[in-house]
Design brief:
By secondary structure, this protein is mostly helical. The protein has two domains: 73 residues; 32 residues, no CATH class. It contains four helices and no strands. Helix 1 runs antiparallel to helix 2. The chain is elongated, with a radius of gyration of 28 Å. The two termini are 53 Å apart. The relative contact order is 0.10.
């Protein structure tokens, strides 16, 4: 199985890098002469925006795959396992029992 969380982090890292690249290209465009915009910076900004959108789609895909893996793990659990856990919790609520004992002894405010 692939680790989608790591891939998702890498994609988010790429997005942040492309955003900073696009900001620097936009600054170069704004600083240029109004009649002659910096064409290379415009082209690079468009490429950065396309890359950001591509990686954002990947992050969404990885989210779906992570959720699917979690659902798969939940589906493997049987209902009887849950009942056993509930039964154990009901029988062994030591905190509640301790509160009852302290209340009866008058030590609980």
């Amino acid at each position: 199985m692939t680790d989608y969380s790591k891939r998702q982090l890498k994609a988010l890292d790429r997005i942040s890098k492309k955003i900073s690249d696009a900001e620097s290209h936009l600054a170069r465009i704004e600083d240029s002469v109004p009649d002659r915009r910096h064409r290379t910076a415009q082209h690079e900004t468009i490429k950065d925006i396309k890359s950001i959108l591509k990686h954002a789609r990947k992050v969404g895909e990885y989210d779906a795959k992570i959720d699917a893996k979690a659902d798969e793990k939940l589906d493997k659990l049987s209902d009887t396992d849950g009942d056993d856990i509930k039964r154990y919790r009901e029988e062994h609520h030591s905190l509640e029992k301790a509160k009852e004992v302290l209340a009866k002894a008058g030590k609980l405010e």
